[in-house]
Amino acid sequence: MNIYVLLKRTFDTEEKITISGGKINEDGAEFIINPYDEYAVEEAIQVRDAHGGEVTVITVGGEDAEKQLRTALAMGADKAVLVNIEDDVENGDQFTTSKIISEYLKDKNADLIIGGNVAIDGGSGQVAPRVAELLNIPYVTTITKLEIDGTNVKIVRDVEGDSEVIETTLPLLVTAQQGLNEPRYPSLPGIMKAKKKPLDELELDDLDLEEDDVAAKTKTIEIFLPAQKEAGRILNGDLSDQVKELVQLLHTEAKVV
Amino acid sequence: MTNQTDQVIKGGSFLIEDVSKERVFTPEDFSDEQLMIAKTTEDYVANEVLPQIEHLENHEFDRSVKLLKQAGELGLLGADVPEEYGGLSLDKVSSALIAEKMSRAGGFSISHGAHVGIGSLPIVLFGNESQKQKYLPDLSSGEKLAAYALTEPGSGSDALGARTTAKLNAEGTHYVLNGEKQWITNAGFADVFVVYAKIDGEHFSAFIVERTFPGVSTGAEEKKMGIKSSSTRTLILQDAQIPVENLLGEAGKGHVIAFNILNIGRYKLGVGAVGASKGAFEITVKYANQRQQFKTPISQFNLTKEKLSTMASKLYAAESSVYRTVGLFEDRMSRLTEAEVNDGKEVAKSIAEYAIECSLNKVFATETLDYIADEGVQIHGGYGFMQEYEIERVYRDSRINRIFEGTNEINRLLVPGTFVRKAMKGELPIFQKALQLQEELMMMMPEEPGDEPLAQEKYLVRNAKKIGLLAAGLAAQKFGKALEKEQEILVNIADIISNAYAMESAVLRTEKAIEKSGLEKNKQKLLYTQIFCQEAFNEIEQHAKETLVATETGDTLRMLVSALRKFTRHTPINVIAKKREASEKLISAEKYLV
């Protein structure tokens, strides 16, 4: 089976996000594989081990993402591809990424593509479904169980805490939700082996893409941190006065009614 | 001048020679693989071990055994075991990183360390082919677990005074061992013990003893102050039957194994103490941010900032020192031929060369940990005294580090002792350098360090070394052979040298980092280095003065004190301001960072 994993390098979940000069401060921050993509890598490895084939991890980004690709290789993926857009794209968006990935994948005869449900940084959850759309294959998001029998696939997907069972066929794209599996640690022998596994680096040129073909469809106007949570307030006095005050506050201060 | 990189750096040579930053290994030089290995270890500890720590502290050692097996599956037990015996043949830096990251697990890391270090290494380094084949694959997978049995009720620091005996039986098939080995880590579950005993009560030798051999048993679990999640028991040998092929190394040469293993144990302990210090620091700074008094997080009080920065600066010096030392082993071992690498004795020799550095690291890093754990409790206030708070365990766990693998007192005494031995053997021209220095003293003009970054610190390092040499030279001249009895002076000299090594390690690391990525990105490192060098130099001055006064009197003393003044002359930096500055990043990152 020809399996591809879409992987993104993100901030460590432990990092404190700070903003300077309208940009998220990356100085000294630790980076990891997006946790949802980690489920995707694990699932891909399990599917390969059960059905044979090969797992290729692909990411779009800069040189630094090589580390996360190596980690996926150390977990057990077979090959990795980095589409390096550092020099070509200044402000990409979900369209940019999905366009690049689909161009790369269009002639690869992928049987199964697995991505994370969302990336914990941008959190759009768009790239994987867009890739499926561009490749014209079916997709199922937020899956928690995957069973493959020949080309038939049975999926359990999480729908806001409830679950839904879906039957479909390969080729297919799915996105991983928490609970799909328990990602393994890269073992030390795995880490040593990863050094020797192929990691290809491509640029837009290699995919016959121009900068204009992948230009962002959206524009980021401003980046800001959520407002600091303020201390709660307890209303006092007569119950009916409290109700009045509450309505008043909801109306004028919180502006929700 | 010869090209420095062609020559291996001699152990202890830092005292009399300057080394260029290119030759020094620093944490900024970790490879991606090494960092990945560190991450796997960290994740394993955080997700598998720490959630069970309460159970482990309650001596549920079946969990320890399971966890160690799991560590074996991940490859965390095989770093130092050659590939042909089921291990990974990793470099010493990777192996050190595993030890550092493991240490967050408190007493469990002692179980791990005893197994991979003092338990398995004697067989890795000194076992014969069939012993290696028989034991190493299982030790590296975690199928079997190891322990090391040297200490006895009557022999601690005086290891060779062991009373356990071995006698070859009449058939010549077995050694019969009798005696008791005390405080044996992992004794509750270990399958294999490396045991020292004297053949015919005379010839100190090492044996591989299996738990299931007739006559082998263990005593009750000890009730310890800390590291409670490690098993500690007496190993009892009552007419224990050890097959002759289980003699490890040569009969009567057990001391060679014991001393080499101690060196390794010491540097690993240094690395572990650095890891535990980072853990203690993180717990503490997080708490300091949460805890409010007078409607202010206590991290915002200048006295807390002072504490945090002092802790982090010492930690930076310790971290720089231990990885510099690991780099020395690595450099030396990379020069060994394949045959030499496979011959454990050569590997052991490569580490023994740096016995001085191993002792310095052990002392400096374990005392850094003790300092950080102690101040960690202090910053927690009354809560730090309560068992619900992790820092309470860290504080108790820390204490043993200054005692085992040679007390810090023994390790201090070893430093000047080993220098003298190396000088006598002609390995290091210490005496010549000391004499040269005394001549130089008479006509020395004070130096004015420039004001570029690190200029002052480099100047302090140069003079720290000179002061160390001066004190050592004087004491050797004055007391000759009787110096051995002047333990207070020896320890002062060791402390001066220890601070000099730590200062230089910090300076070289910062210098290397600044050259690589610029001053802007390395401001924190520079602050730590400035703070640490200033404070360490103050201590050096103190120790030197005390030594001079105890060595000479009258006019000679006056002359020496004024000579010392030449070496110590400098304009001190504003440590208070530097500490306030350094604390900002620590408080916002909520962890030790460089």
Features:
heterodimer; A: 257 residues; alpha/beta; Rossmann fold; 2 domains; nine-stranded mixed β-sheet; two-stranded antiparallel ribbon; 13 strands; 27% strand; globular; B: 594 residues; alpha+beta; eight-stranded mixed β-sheet; 20 helices; 10 strands; electron transport (chain A); ETF_a/b_N (chain A); transport (chain A); electron transfer activity (chain A); Electron transfer flavoprotein subunit beta (chain A)
What this model shows, in words?
The complex is a heterodimer of chains A (257) and B (594). Chain A has 257 residues and is an alpha/beta fold. Chain A has two domains: 2-214, HUPs (Rossmann fold, 3-Layer(aba) Sandwich); 227-257, no CATH class. Chain A has six helices and 13 strands. In chain A, strand 10 and strand 11 (162-169) form a beta hairpin. In chain A, helix 2 (66-75) packs across helix 5 and helix 3 (94-105) crosses helix 4. The longest helix of chain A is centred in the N-terminal third of the chain and has 17 residues, at 35-51. Chain A is globular and about 70 Å long. By secondary structure, chain B is an alpha+beta fold. Chain B is 58% helix and 10% strand. Chain B is built from 20 helices and ten strands. In chain B, helix 9 (302-333) packs across helix 17 (487-517) and helix 9 crosses helix 18. The mean pLDDT of chain B is 95.
